Amino acid sequence: MAEHVESQAKTRAASRRVKPAMALLLKEQRRESQEVVTRFSNINLVSESDGNFFENFSQLPKKQESLHFRKAAHGLQAHVPEQTEDDVLASRIDHPCKDIPQLSKKEVVDLYRNILSVIHFRLGAVGQSFPADQELYGYLNDIFKACVSISEHNSMVLTITKGAPPDTILLVTVQEARDLVGKDVSGLSDPFCVMGILPTGESKKPFVTHSRGSQGTCSAHSQHHGHKGGHSCPDLQSTSIVKEQLNPKWNENFRFVLECDVHTAWFHIDVWDHDEETTVMEVVKKSGDIQNVKGVKRLLKEVIQSTRLGGSNPDDFLGYVNIKLDTIPSWGWSAWFSLKSKSSRSKSKSGEIYLKLKMSLQRANQSYQVLSPTMVHRVLWFYIVHHEVAKLDQLGAWDGELPAKAKTILQQHAVQYEISDLHQALCRWLAYSQECTMCVIDFRSFYTYGETLKKSWKPYALSADEEQYLQSSFHGFITYALYMLRRQQDMFPPTNKPALRRLRYLLLCLSQINDMEFAERNMLFQPNCQAIILDAIKDDIRNWYCKKHLEMVESKPETEKVASLAGLTNAINGQAQRLLQFVHSTYQTVFEIPYFTIVYQEIAQKLMADVSQCLTSCVSGHGLDDVEGEEYSERSTALFELYLALRDFVGFAEHLSEGDQADLEIKEYHKFFKKAVEKWLNVARKRAQERIQKAVELDQVALVDTMVKHSTSAVDVATCFAQIREFWQKLDWPDTVGSYVFVAKVTDDICHGAVSYANIIHDKLRQKGYYDDEGQFDITDQLCIAINNIEQVRRSLAIMPKSLGWQRIQVSMETEYGEMAGRQCQDTLHTMMTSADEDMVNVIEHVVQRVGERMRPDFRRFLRALLDAHIHSSIDDAIDPLMEYLDTNMITLHNCLLKSNFDRILQDIWIVLVDELGKIISSKNKVLQGKPLLFCRINETLEILSDFFYADEKGLPLATLHNRKYIEMKSFAESNMADTYELIEAFHAEKLQAVEESTQSGKESELGMLTVKCYYNDITKYLCVMLVNARNIQPKDKSGTSDPYVVLELQPSFVFPKSVPQKSKVIKETVHPLFDEAFEFPVTKDQCTHRGACLHFIMYDYDVITADDFEGETFLALDDIPGIRKGFDSSYAALNSVPLPLMRPEDNIDNAPFLLSTLKQRTTDRVAQEFAKKRGQLLKRAKVAP
Predict the structure, then answer these.
(1) pTM given for the model
(2) DSSP string covering 1083-1117, please?
(3) Does Cytoplasm appear among the keywords (predicted)?
């Protein structure tokens, strides 16, 4: 019989035909906006009814953001023109060095003749590029044409060309050497250098050396002219000896007067290792210093040297360098030169030596010379720079670059008269600083000149007059620089990149001067450099603020003070952004001055004073309490514009340190606006209620989506709430704790408005007769639109926690007043929203429930007809009327409802449908018993309806569909369809499922855990079980322990008919028994893989007097133990222990009552009765157990 019923069910399932309309509709992808798009013409009528109250205020933050965007774009892209001629002229100030030194006629002639001689006898390497002599003469005459006539010029040139040339001098600095060869036993050397001039390049061999002392005199070197393999020179000079070094440093200067042709002469330098003549014993004593094989060789060499009679040159040669004199450029030559060895065949490296070489001239004593060379050089610099400035077409930026002719003259004069680097740098600085206020010289050039002066500076290397002159120059430059900084906003606009570059180099120049020893010694900055720059910054920003305040506020009438102050604040914000972005880093990098902090604090102080004065008088004389209508809108708009501007200004404070922020009074600016916000919220609540009434009054049906209908009232109301939220959000109230009162007010206003709207819509629906019982019930567009409107407005509540910053308020309240206060605030806000949400959902569900209840009579009629249909008729034919009825109504609902509302109605209809089917089954229970085909029809009906409402995952979720009522009916039908053996198998399968779920949860059972090992021995055909231990079992004795033992039995019994239960030994007085006992059961693999096949463990507490107490039961599935699916080596040691949770009978599975009750009802089935009786006894013992 059972097989026949199952076959019938499979046949019907294969041929089942379900109407597809529901699934097809739900598969369509639909877009539903979380926020309603305001695109209806009707919204204009509603907003115009209150003068666009919410629209005007919601636009204020956007206007403020737009203003910032325009300023940012201007700051990044706009081109600020360079300073005009008037700006440059206005920037001139009196400079203490502004006059060029006035020379007498004799001094000018003396200087002129001197420079002509420099030009004529210029020095330089062969091939070095120079302007022609006539070009240099012409340039010099242009400079001095006011003092020297052409005839005088020609006469002096003729005299110089006929005169004897001055002596040429080679200046050599032997700086250091590196990587020399070690010649001593210790691996080091005692290097010294010998150098001289070779008139020709015929012989470039090393000079002959002789044993010498550490003083390094050259007399000994001139006594060995004829030595084989060497070369001697009458003018040899040598360095000192550096002991035990391979990287010696000398830094010694030498001077050679050249009495030979420069174009053929060479400079030659040798490097030697000095060796004192020692005895053999002294050399042997050094044997302890030998480190390697090379040291041994050196030791032997010294022994041989010390024993050589008549040895005259014990020094070791290290290398030499030859430099042709006509390759030395006019500005000198400084470089590392590689040392060459004696033999050209040697490939080993001998090291390098660093030399500085420079050519100069030595003139005879010129009695006519009035000015010193240093004075000539300084005056020459003054005249040349002044000459170049005078040639500029117009006042403007000049990079200070001199023409090649000027640089040649200055360089040749410095070289020929050996003007030191310090004096050259001094002369250049003095000349340029004199002209710095006469034209806009690029401060980058000044920085370069200052860097050269700083690097070449040597304390007290200048004369007293020169130091005084430099001090006056520095003082004048500092005065000029501070003047520029006090006008920084005008002279260095923050968006003008060239101006910002000039500002940076101006600060770098001041930093250079400040870092010099000269500045500290002469106290150029009083009290210090940073202090005077700070004062200049403050003066600059104060002047800028006063200028803007006069322009934008003081010139406006009293009635526009608030609006004009808002405009000033916005202008300040724009400038602050630019100064922070473009200027702050310059001061921070150069002087570590927090520029933006200083500027911000100065502006904040003055702005706060103006705001306080303005708003105090505004509130006292022109408050908002008694103002309504258009006048209120105008005044409040101006106030909130000022608030937003101040909010943005205070936002810049995040770039200040915490300590600096704490002292800012302007951070309390919001206190001036507290009453204005309170007033606005009161007005907004009233205007919102009026707008809701107006929106419903002007309600029109309009398509929001292609298939879903709304009315315009939902759009109007949701938009109104969004504008309120957005306005508060953009206010960004700085006092988070204090904002709780306002947020609570906004939340309450929106919630009140939403519930009010839902009630108005519901009342309107009631007035249309929706709840009237008279007449036939039909699902109409009016019904769908009503609940869609309520749902759409309800959705607008969900974003309040985020948009209104509830979490931020809670954290601030917890910080200020403790965790309890923060939680109470959060609970209060959530209670408001939850209450409103529940009220609106209740209204929707009140409408939705009416739909299901109105459809119940039809469901009852169709379901009765389904069960009363002929038992052999097709399920499709029997259920078809019901499915057509559902399709027709679902299509209407689906086309007209939002998905959330559609799901609500779908769920309510499902509950009503399943409930009605359950009632019919209960009423026909006696008739159904003994008719398996009827239970098959009930089961198929449940599956068809579930598939219909599930609609391929597009309808209700399975968790909703398979509610308790559905599961009860499904289990009831399936249990009555199956035979006894299938029910018993299903029972054990569910027991195994319960054990697996408990194990995967990771939680230990309250009855304890049993640990086992199990495998199948394929050779002996035995199921081998090792009962390992148990833990945390329930104590059953008064001593707090138990005497546990375990009964093992294979289930289901009809699968293992020959198997006999086995029992373990009793473990006394413990709740953690260690059994360590093995058992074997003769079984086959096919038996172990049978559905529900398992090993049933029952633990008891042994009792001598009374019946043994039940401890718990558990099950082990046999189909997946080692040896069943895969081979196993038949060893417990290779097995992992399996923990099994001990459970109470039947309490752990949902379908057990149905399965057992079904078996109990089969009174004529012996197997069913025996199984039910055995489980009942076990359940009874489990309930009796303490």
Answers:
(1) 0.59
(2) --HHHHTSTT-EEEEEEEE--SSSPPEEEEEEEEE
(3) yes
